[in-house]
Design goal:
205 residues; alpha/beta; six-stranded mixed β-sheet; two-stranded antiparallel sheet; globular; binds adenosine-5'-triphosphate; binds magnesium ion
């Protein structure tokens, strides 16, 4: 898959409707972590903004990955056995009944350079751990950014604990905060996040 196939911007549905507020430091820090580590998990309780942050990070770092950034929304995947197939479906990897989905996935991805965003893994942590534990050693140029309320819990995982969004002071309510326009749109069940041309900032912690 070449750069010419990088498709459309995408993110979560709510992202298409609202501006991304603040989080510049957090986006930069997670983007920097992805330059150093191949499995980064954004953790914290529900609703704090993990998915939204991961989408923004995906856009920020997209230019680093020749085969793009792929968002796999796992919240609706209830059967852990279906996790590899869910990833394969998003990337467009055909599966054959003759081989295990995880093996087929690792075989194809061993020839790709991409970022997988595994979103909302908390209910299928064991399956996500198994997927990452098999995939990352087999596919040297694949990096995973996961979001989960809890850690995946395998060796090599780097956790980023996302804090709550700051509440604006009373004088700032209704004045638009420091929002950035979110240039994304839905793109089917599997979505690819547009690579960004923004320079990556160095780690600042
Ligand atoms: N920085 C932000 N700017 C604007 N809206 C945001 C921001 N962060 C989160 N939101 C909005 O808050 C809501 C919850 O965010 P999000 O889905 O990313 O949380 P989450 O931590 O992934 O939750 P869950 O654990 O339930 O998956 C969404 O509607 C999202 O668009
Ligand atoms: Mg989420």
């Amino acid at each position: 898959m070449g750069k010419a196939r990088r498709p459309l911007a995408a993110c979560t549905d709510s992202c298409a409707l609202t501006s991304f507020v603040g989080r510049d430091d957090e986006v930069a820090k997670v983007a920097a972590l992805l330059g150093e580590y191949r499995l980064v998990t954004v953790t914290r309780p529900g609703g704090v903004g993990k998915t939204r942050l991961a989408c923004e990070v995906g856009r920020r770092v997209g230019a680093r990955f020749a085969d793009g950034v792929w968002l796999v929304e796992l919240a609706a995947v209830q059967d852990p056995a279906l996790v590899p197939a869910a990833v394969a479906a998003v990337i467009g990897i055909p599966l054959s009944p003759d081989s295990a989905p995880a093996q087929a996935l690792a075989g194809v991805l061993s020839r790709r350079q991409l970022l997988l965003v595994l979103d909302n893994c908390e209910h299928i942590l064991d399956a996500t751990a198994e997927l990452c534990g098999g995939l990352l050693p087999a596919a040297d140029d694949v990096t995973v950014l996961a979001t989960s309320r809890g850690p995946i819990g395998i060796a090599g995982e780097t956790r980023y604990r996302l804090g709550p969004l700051p509440v604006p002071g009373p004088g700032r309510i209704g004045r638009g905060l420091d929002s950035q326009p979110c240039s994304c749109s839905p793109n089917g069940p599997g979505r690819q996040i547009r690579p960004s041309t923004q320079a990556t900032e160095p780690p600042s912690w």
